[in-house]
Amino acid sequence: MPDILLPIIALLSGFALLIWSADKFTENGAKIANIFKVSPLIIGLIIFGFGTSAPEMLVSGLAAMDGNTGLSIGNAIGSNIFNIALVLGVSAIIAPIEVRGSILKKEWIFLMIATLCAGLLLVDQRLDFTDGLILLTLLILFLGYTLKEAKNKKNHEFDGLEQTIDKSQTNKTWIMLLIGLVVLISSAKLVVWGGVEVAQFFGVSDLIIGLTVVALGTSLPELAVSISSVLKKQFEMVVGNVIGSNLFNTIAVLAIPGLIHPSDVPTEVMSRDYPIMLLLTVLLFVVSYKFGKKHIINRFEGLALISVFSFYMWQLF
After folding, report:
1. Residue 21 is inside which H or E element, if any?
2. Number of domains in the chain
3. Which residues constitute the domain of residue 282?
4. Is there a smaller number of Cβ atoms within 10 Å at the N or the C end of the chain?
5. CA 133 – CA 64 distance, rounded (Å)
């Protein structure tokens, strides 16, 4: 049993450092953007969008470089399942979540298109360089669209970030940003190593470890952000955070293994994991959209999302 102790310690400490560094990287990135008078909207899109998905991107990239493509794919799909079923489900049980209609008409539609596109690319059970490029193109289109939308809006949920930053703090902020990035990369490496070692010790495939342990670990920042947003009654942040994160996972995180280490996709991905991800993406709209009423995800619907998650975990094991 001592053989497994070090990988477990690496996995747990990697997750803790991953959450801390993603938070510091995001916070100091926002400060730097403020010092250089970058629009709060751009901060919201690039820094927060990238910030909460940075753990998934780094874990996916490092796993692909080591040839553990199953872990990369499992991490991308597993994180999407965790985000909708667990993050939204738990948040809605804490307090019913009000959803802005425009998110369902625009961002959700883009997420649905990206999810269907990913399915079409994975159906041949191969994730290659061309697939990675197609997903990357979708990412560029999404970022371009969001930036264009951002310029048209006067008020934005990230406007609260416009605060006076002490210019004398610039050097310290840059140093903290770099420290955050270094710790982010190192902790992602720890998570990949620990995850692979644990998988091999228990004879579990790296896909299953990616779908469960690693996906949960890299989704912890989203869970923390969502629960704190619900407690502060910032409901728009919750659904926006989940949709934004899932978009990054589908078109950025999934593109990485294709671009770095093209390989075959395990058969279970299309027969078991992708259908659950697609079902939850559709359910996200079903539980949010209410005809002629306020769009609210209530506690019962939160419980329904948790039930889908429990069924999926039972299927995996």
Report:
1. helix 2-35
2. 1
3. 2-316
4. N
5. 16
